[in-house]
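yo, Transmembrane protein is done. seq:
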Amino acid sequence: MTVTSPFSSGGRQAQGLPRLPTPPTGWPIGSYATYQEAQRAVDYLADNQFAVEDVTIVGVDLMLVERVLGRLSWGRVLMTGAISGAWFGLFVGFLLAMFASGAEVTYQPILVGLVSGVLFGLVFAAISYASSRGRRDFASASQLVAGRYDVLCQPRNAEQGRDLLAKLAMRPSGSSS
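structure:
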């Protein structure tokens, strides 16, 4: 899956993709309730030697869904801060140990990195949580979803794509290609 940003300066631009945000073009050949169904439809087209480079999946009626994972407390915030700090500290400690002068392997940089990471993680988590003053005492995960997913195709192949997707719709949903 290639994800590009219209604001990125370097890197390779995928062939045929516009450089600026551009509305999709093409004729609708299928509409699906979930992204998984739309992806299955395009995969079916590809399995049947259809020119999938003419196909676009478009999410319509976008929604930002925030799922609440649980309540935040000082204990949970500090534990999470300590754990994330420990991981970062271990990473820095391993880097320091790898590039330390001397032939012998020493664990001091790793230990120093771990302890420093835990302390910094605790401090930054505490400052961040205290600054919210109880306005957001829950953890959550956000996801961008669509109300439906339309599959569009360039006009030159739209009829053939519609015919193939009609065959797919007549198949039982559990069967494979």
